[in-house]
Amino acid sequence: MRLVILPQAFRNMLPILLTQVIVLFQDTSLVYVISATDFVGAAAKVAQRDSRLVEMYLFVAAVYFVLCYALSSLVRRLQQRVAVIR
């Protein structure tokens, strides 16, 4: 099982699991709606304190974009690397 079944299962599961990680990361921004402090909430507090709303929200958007793009590129590369020709 360790040498035959698990490598096949891992090859099929890994891209889907990494895609779920990306979706979960994007969903954490929804926590801000219920007033829990997260990255967006902390940025909003700093923006209100310094009166720089646009700059902070642009920074948050850039960080989210960079992280999501990097993770999706990793998933794409991983899918190509472990792809099985059927």
Protein model, in words:
The structure is a single chain. The protein is mainly alpha-helical and 86 residues long. It has helices at residues 5-27, 39-50, 53-81. It has three helices and no strands. The two termini are 21 Å apart.
**Quaternary:** single chain
Form type = elongated
Radius of gyration: 18 Å
Structural class: mainly alpha
Distance between the termini: 21 Å
Quick check: average pLDDT?
A: 81
Reported for the largest beta sheet, the result is:
none
Taken as a percent bin, the fraction of beta residues is under 5%
Features:
86 residues; mainly alpha; 3 helices; 74% helix; elongated
List the helices and strands and how they pair.
Layout: H1 5-27, H2 39-50, H3 53-81
Helix pairs in contact: 1-3, 2-3
In short:
The chain is mainly α and 86 residues long. It has three helices and no strands.
